[in-house]
Specification:
about 200 residues; alpha/beta; Rossmann fold; about 55% helix; SIS_dom; SIS domain-containing protein; SIS_GmhA/DiaA_subfam
């Protein structure tokens, strides 16, 4: 009998294989266009999604610069604890991320949202605000029927609503997205990468 860890990894492999690579490539294209026009990439999530959002912002900025690529303007909306607590106090928890976003976003920016359930009010309120501010939305989301998937301009479906599996798939997709820019100036990827 396969162990839980073995079953988990086997499930992850099967679910990861369902990710639409064309959607990932479209998202990478939107990010590249944003960088080309010096737009900001805003990232947002709730809980584990916020950690992934922070990681993406770091990948697009510091990691890309360190590797010799041209870094992005990118920031995680949940990174500034003081601003987030002030916005929560002034606007309420469901509107705090939206308030921070609306104070900073410009038309032509891109918002990259992470949500397993696709029903996080704070994330969805921010996505709704993005449309009003002419900001395109990339969403890494668990299921197609969710609010987040329906609101996004470029949904990337993670193939699972189970948080561990979905966040692990999102992590792999997020790494693929920003590593595209980290390694853009290298003739070959690191040893062990295909291609």
């Amino acid at each position: 009998m396969m162990s839980f860890a073995g079953r988990y990894l086997d499930t992850w492999r099967r679910v990861a294989a369902t990710v639409d690579l064309e959607a990932v490539d479209r998202a990478v294209g939107l990010l590249d266009e944003a960088r080309g026009r010096d737009a900001t990439v805003w990232t947002v999530g709730n809980g584990g999604g916020s950690a992934l959002a922070s990681h993406l912002a770091i990948g697009l900025t510091l990691n890309t610069r360190r590797s010799g690529g041209r870094p992005f303007r990118a920031s995680n909306l949940g990174a500034d604890a003081a601003a987030l607590s002030a916005a929560t106090n002034d606007f309420g928890a469901d509107y705090a991320l939206q308030a921070v976003f609306e104070c900073n976003a410009r038309p032509g920016d891109v918002l990259c949202a992470f949500s397993v359930s696709g029903e996080s009010a704070g994330v969805n309120n921010t996505i709704t605000a993005a449309a009003r501010h002419h900001v395109l939305v990339i969403a890494l989301v668990g299921t197609p029927e969710s609010t987040t998937a329906r609101l996004a301009d470029c949904p990337i479906l993670l193939g699972s609503a189970e948080p561990g599996i979905a966040e692990d798939v999102a992590s792999a997709v997020m790494h693929a997205m920003y590593c595209t820019f980290m390694y853009e100036t290298r003739e070959r990827l690191l040893t062990g990468f295909p291609g």
